[in-house]
Amino acid sequence: MVNLTINGKSISVPEGTTIIEAAKAAGIRIPSLCYMKGINEIGACRVCLVEVEGARGLVTSCTTKVSEGMVVRTNSPAAKEARKAVVELIISNHPYDCLKCVRSGKCELQQLANDMGIREISYEGEKSHHEQDKSTFSIVRDPDKCVLCRRCVAVCAKVQGVGAVNTQGRGFGTVVAPEFELPMNSTSCAMCGQCVLVCPTGALTERDSTGEVWRAINDPVKHVVVQTAPAVRVALGEEFGMEPGSLVTGKMVAALRRLGFDKVFDTDFTADLTIIEEGTELLHRALSGGKLPMITSCSPGWIKYCEHYYGDRLDHLSTCKSPQQMFGALAKTYYAQKAGIDPKSIFSVSVMPCTAKKFECERPEMVSSGYKDVDAVLTTRELARMIRESGLDLNELEPEEYDAPFGISTGAAVIFGATGGVMEAALRTVYEIVTGTDLGSNLDFVDVRGMEGIKQMSVKLPENLAAPYDKLSGLELKFAVAHTLKNASQVMDMVRSDTAPWHFIEVMACPGGCIGGGGQPIGTDYDRRVMRIEGTYAADKSLKMRKSHDNPAVRELYNDYLIEPLGHKSHELLHTHYEDRGRV
Amino acid sequence: MVVQPGGYFYQKVKPEDATDIVREHLLGGRPVVRLMVTDPSTDAIQPTMEDIPFFNKQQRIVLRNCGIIDPLRLEDYMGRDGYKALHKCITGMAREKVISDIKSSGLRGRGGAGFPTGLKWEFTYKAKGDEKFVVCNADEGDPGAFMDRSVLEGDPHSVIEGMAIAAYAVGAKQGFVYVRAEYPLAIANLSHAIEQARKAGWLGESIQGTDFCFDLDIRVGAGAFVCGEETALLASVEGRRGEPRPRPPFPAQEGLWGKPTVLNNVETYANVAQIILHGWEWFASIGTEKSKGTKVFALAGKIRNTGLVEVPMGTPLGDIIYDIGGGIPNGRKFKAAQTGGPSGGCIPSQYLNTPVDYETLKELGTIMGSGGLIVMDEDTCMVDLAKFFLAFIQDESCGKCSPCRIGTKRMYEIVDRITKGKGKDGDIELLMELASIIRSTALCGLGQTAPNPVESTIRHFKNEYMSHIEQKKCEASACATLFEAPCKNSCPADVDVPRYIALIKQKRFDEAVDLIKRTNPFPAVCGRVCDHPCEGHCRRRDTDEPIAIKALKRFAADYDSVHACISPIVTRTGKKVAVIGAGPSGLTAAYYLALAGHDVKVYEALPVAGGMMAVGIPAYRLPKDVLQHEVDNIKAAGVDIRLGVKVGKDISVKTLLEENDAVYAAVGAHLEQSLGIPGDNLPGVLSATEFLRDVALGNKAGIGGSVAVIGGGNSAIDAARTALRLGAGKVHLVYRRMREDMPADKAEVTAAIEEGIEFHFLTAPASIEAAGGKLTLKCDTMKLGAFDKSGRRRPEKTEGTSEIVVDNVLAAIGQNPDPTFKEGLPELVTTKSGIVVSDPNTGETSVERLYSGGDCATGPWTVVAAIGAGRKAALAIDRKLEGTWHLEANKPIVRTLVGEVIEDPMPRAVMQELPATDRVCCFREVELGLRAEDALAEASRCFQCDVRD
């Protein structure tokens, strides 16, 4: 332990702690902008400058490690003035358009300016200008609002291992952009949106779809259906001041009805369906000597990443569409038929924790229904904005139920939102199908839960399994779960070198899984991810039905329409293919 | 080339000189004098390198082999003790001993910051790590600096040897040299040398049979200035974007790939072997207390000898610039030197004695840097210079930290607007504020030092910033939007030179004179006696020679000498102005105030009008009728001149203030300063001013057959040449400095020499004794010592003395204003020597409604400066009196090209002159003016650079 004093307060922290973390431990907040613990500790913005006795000049508290006997003053006049001046300089190169900025109220620069009492800018001058990048369906880049904190750069390179954006140019012309300032849609960007989550300003935002959704809602001809992803319900509350992880499913459904959606459905329904299809596919591959390990395909960011970086290993991916796209295909076929609605007039909206979903629904092959399967994707943030726009407060809404038939789901579907959730849901189903036994209350596969980057587990199947699973008798089924693309690449490198011991791998692009997706509320950090995961498992626990194959609506779907998993109809509507996109 | 034996040094040798060298020197034993270097001021021949100050003031350690050996031959290097030091280290010196020797030698980093090299090695040596690296910084990026390049190109093995010794000392096995891609020859020679060293067993495994292993690779940088910063350089070596990171940890702890790393500059490494070889004591004996050894400087800019020089630390800046650098070319004045490039600052002329070492430079607000030394003369605008460096920094900032990325941009914007005449009150303070913020908040050395050029130029040249901001004036004629043409800009009277030349070119001589008279009522006078700063700034100077502006002015004025003054019918304002003194300043003010419609009376103590033009400048330079004609024109404009009225005696200035709306005091400086030596009051010791005045007024001058004039200004020359014309058979001129230091007009000095006046330079009067009807002027022989505040070397007494026996001694060492005029006005603030304190732009004094200008407000200065001051005061007075003339006076005129612009070289017109033999007998005008065809040709030489589109 190292002893030091900060603002006269003596504290003791472990060796290697930075001043900013030591101060935090002592209850002293040092303003910062570019700093992200463990991810971006580069001292670039100079907002966290403090005075250290004996040091030459001010030091950045995010990069300077504590030392024995160090005397730190975070609020000396020199430090305060320097920090304020630095923020003023940053603001002097920022468009003053807070009133119409989507990040207004959640902007860290705005907050800093306000906290520091900045009422005028002494250093006015030219503002740097670079064209907005609206080339993708997922993310909009507005370099004019960029403060060059490089948090996006760090998260993309260090957390995701992609490095789609970096600093280009020099001096005042420096800009964070893809190499050669190419448009984002011509890069290997996975569209995961983690950059958007960490952007302190409005320089990186989701591409807004609220306008087209409003138009559809306001169009009397359109029958507008909406599906909500599992991870949205544990995060939306944060936008309305609730604790992270608060489960707001019923309130959300009520809000969606108030907004004017004709039917409010649940993606969880197709999550259950996914388990049936994917579980069957896994068993089919295992029994018929198909490509193993099989890898999940519900995370569109992961899929795009895999198509860029592991184009030679696409045959490992499950052919199952993601729950969003399964839903889309069914909404304009099965549902349309069942409800007697012309699929042409159906406008299918999904609410997702994800920016990559916006890309996914635009993939040209996602038209199995004969129409664009999903018309528009809203992120959690966009839904919150629509709710606020309508003058609603989620806190005050009475919970309501989803509409039938796509509103019925199980706990297995809910946990899709957390890393390991798909694996756990699949295990619950596959195990029971293969062994023909009921897991009873032993449904929790805790080994695949939690924030560890790569998790592994194995299940030994009993001997003497009945046909057609007799071939699997006594087999030790091995599983791996990876979240973040960087971890995924580690797993994939093993797949590529044929050293992967697993039969089935779950990959989610975002840290923590979908609950940490790029479409979630701003402020998503490690702690919030953990709380949302807790909320997710609590929701699972509270449900009576916790296994996908128990879902009666799914059974009815097969009985009435699909006939059987991996059947002809399934193949047509629920399965897809991938393309090698090459690295850019 | 050098011819041995004897070490004869020939310069600018061409193939055709070979015959002479072989036949005369090699065969005949007669060195070829015409190829030798001559001293530019004394014309003395300097046959060998030892005789040439450029070489003999240098001490070469780092550059010792450059130019001497073939850099591609290892044998050459070995023959000059190459690799002996490395051998000594690896075969017999403990690593700790190597480090302690380098520490004791006092060697400090030559890259700029001056960190003790031995200490850096020791840190790396002590740092824990399984692997260590040695890196050489050859990413030389300062504009104008190229010492690293020269060493790598000319003596690459010295760097390899230095690095190998460092590697041995700290325990590294691998080294990297980071060179910028713009140095292809350095890269080629270094690669070649590395290959040779490997083959010869000086690099690689088991070097020279010992267990020491070390190898070296080159990393080529893409030419980013910031990669000279050590952490950015290391990032670039690792293959990442060259950006600095915060320190600590320092590279000695966590360097290349996180391993302990020694990172030194090329020049630092080049010193190492010599220290090991000759001992640390030897190295420590060179230089100053805290800065040991030598430093290589890249001399650039306005200096005769540009290139690399190596001098002991602590060599005075002036010695580097004048003795080694040969001083400033084209007779320009030294203004400042920039050290440390964009991270450094400037050193103005009053600090020429500064010993160049790390500490002293730091105290002056600059840094040693890597050794770039850019010399600037009076044509350099310091605001423009600051702008240049800020633009450089903006181009080179890596963009990582906000203060450097945005802060220097903001500084650039402010400086830019100042140079464009859009500077605002408070801009200087804002710049200083930003500078302080950036220095204390930027991430790396580049950012932290980026404000230095601005802070430094504000510190030493704040007035230049002020004149850009307040007067929208760029004295140096560098900031293009602030002036029409450099000639006009440098004219104290703001005469529209390019336009009147264009009128002459069109033979519109009367209009040319009218145009001159808009700002200067004395074209004929100035056409003869002006010191013509305009010509010194003429753009044509860079092509061949400046336009003969003075001669053209005289031509137009002479051609038009019958032309009467424009006496436009102006509305009388009824306002009254009194002018004290009918010199150039007073008459100018009076003339324009009269044109403005005010009633003007001029009070002149002397019986003639014209002030120093009448009683100071001899008739051979300015004939009386020429002056009288222009005075008459002024009278014709309505100016009432009262001669023989001495204000302060005959009428008080208080009364003038009571009776008039404004008073302009322009009494000049007519009181000669006394010599202040024993015997300066003896009969026969006269004031040059009084002497010239007596001659001009036709009084008896009482001059003997031999005269000594003391002084180096125009008065001294005038007195000497006048004495000659009055029949003095022998005229001496005694001056304590050298000819090039004389403030007098160069042409006047030449004319005086032609006329046979004997100059005694480096001679200072010590006493005057009278004996036998003669005066003995006893003098001390002087030598030039350290530099004084004016940037000239201060004369210092030597043992030597001399004597001159003459009939008269004329003192011409400076004049002060006659204080009589301010009797009864104690509230008027003046300096100790009686100079009136007034605003140089308006003439306003401490007394309400009293204005002052000309010599009495500046000390003895030029006619044209006095005219300029008079007009400025007239503008200010007219504004104060709510007249309308000042609103019209400076209206811009349309500038269009007249005829074609001749850019090919074309000789400058020369005025006819009386031959020297015909001059000395009389006071006939020496210069005879231009012929019409010459004038037209001369006018056609003008580039018309005032026309901008």
Which characteristics define this entry?
heterodimer; A: 584 residues; alpha/beta; Rossmann fold; five-stranded mixed beta sheet; 34% helix; B: 949 residues; 28 strands; 15% strand; elongated
Overview of this structure, please?
The complex is a heterodimer of chains A (584) and B (949). Chain A is of the alpha/beta class and 584 residues long. Chain A has 18 helices and 17 strands. Chain A has helices at residues 19-25, 77-92, 108-115, 151-159, 194-198, 210-218, 249-259, 267-288, 300-309, 323-339, 356-362, 380-389, 411-414, 421-435, 485-496, 526-542, 552-562, 568-574; strands at 2-6, 9-13, 49-52, 59-60, 70-73, 139-141, 166-168, 175-177, 204-206, 223-228, 263-266, 294-295, 346-352, 376-379, 454-460, 476-483, 504-508. Chain A has a five-stranded mixed sheet with strand order 2-1-5-3-4, with helices on both faces. Chain A has a four-stranded parallel sheet with strand order 11-10-13-14, sandwiched between helices. Chain A has a four-stranded mixed sheet with strand order 12-17-16-15, with helices on one face. In chain A, α8 packs across α10 (323-339) and α8 (267-288) crosses α14 (421-435). Chain A is globular and about 75 Å long. Chain A starts with a strand and ends in a 10-residue tail after the last helix. The model of chain A has no long low-confidence stretch (mean pLDDT 96). Chain B is α/β, with parallel strands linked by helices and 949 residues long. Chain B folds into seven domains: 2-51, no CATH class; 74-284, 3-Layer(aba) Sandwich (Rossmann fold), CATH 3.40.50.11540; 290-377, Ubiquitin-like (UB roll); 381-483, de novo design (two linked rop proteins); 486-563 and 894-940, Fumarate Reductase Iron-sulfur Protein, Chain B, domain 2 (Orthogonal Bundle); 576-670 and 817-889, FAD/NAD(P)-binding domain (3-Layer(bba) Sandwich); 671-816, FAD/NAD(P)-binding domain (3-Layer(bba) Sandwich). Chain B is built from 37 helices and 28 strands. A five-stranded mixed sheet of chain B has the order 10-9-13-11-12. In chain B, strands 16-15-14-17-28 form a five-stranded parallel sheet, with helices on both faces. In chain B, strands 19-26-20-21-22 form a five-stranded parallel sheet. The A-B interface holds A 42-47, 49, 57-60, 63-64, 78, 82, 85-86, 89-90, 92-93, 122-123, 125-126, 147-148, 150, 166-167, 169-174 and B 224, 241, 243, 245-246, 248, 393-403, 405-410, 413, 430, 433-434, 437, 439-443, 448.
